[in-house]
Amino acid sequence: VQQELSHGMFLDVGYSGAGGRHLWGEPDINELLPGQAVALGITPAATPLTTTTDPRVKAFRPYRSYRAINIYQTWINSSYNALQSMFKKSVPGGFITASYTWSKTLTNAGSNAASPQNTYDRTVERGHSPYDRNHVMTASWSYELPFFRHANGFLKQSLGGWQSSGILSVASGLWAFNPSSSSLGTDPAGLGILGS
């Protein structure tokens, strides 16, 4: 929707949405049940599996005697919804524009190589994507400087007609999850796989 507010002043407001379904992902189909390594007494809570403890859990995996089995499956979904607005005003000798987007990007994987924390319940993976910026504002301007505009000869050619212009972009921060800062420790799902 575009509306002229007054002479030389315009406002655009719109909605944008997109969805991704059945995108490629790489889950581990040989994953322990959440908390299983801890329940079996193989590893303490919030401790990743090591070369010593990993062989002990192979007997409890769905495909015994194997470690992780990462396969490509079309299980990732995403959605994007945004309210977009733009304001433009013409001024003598230039213009000013300002754009603002209020959006949300949700997904159940951060990338196509992301493995869910819990392959058995992928619905709990849905949340803000790692590249989601909820607020983005951009402003731009251009203004012809009035100096020596009406001069003659050398002054007009060398010092007249200069412009001042610029672009300003401001955005909210990216969503991130650092397992080591979680109150759940380095292994939030209790799988024994995250950590250093």
Q: What would a concise description of this structure say?
A:
By secondary structure, this protein is mainly β. It is 8% helix and 39% strand.
Describe this structure in words.
By secondary structure, this protein is mostly beta strands. 8% of the residues lie in helices and 39% in strands. The chain contains 3 helices and 7 strands, in the order ββααββββαβ. It has helices at 36-39, 54-57, 153-159; strands spanning 2-6, 9-25, 73-91, 94-107, 127-128, 135-144, 163-171. Strands 1, 2, 3, 4, 5, 6 and 7 form a 7-stranded antiparallel sheet that branches. A hairpin with a 2-residue loop joins β1 and β2.
Q: What form results from the Cα inertia axes?
A: elongated
Overall number of strands = 7
Number of helical elements: 3
Structural class: mainly beta
Distance between the termini: 51 Å
The share of residues in extended strands comes to 35-45%
Q: Give helix % range.
A: under 10%
List the helices and strands and how they pair.
Elements: E1 2-6, E2 9-25, H1 36-39, H2 54-57, E3 73-91, E4 94-107, E5 127-128, E6 135-144, H3 153-159, E7 163-171
Antiparallel strand pairs: 1-2, 2-3, 3-4, 4-5, 4-6, 6-7
Jot down its keywords:
196 residues, mainly beta, 7 strands
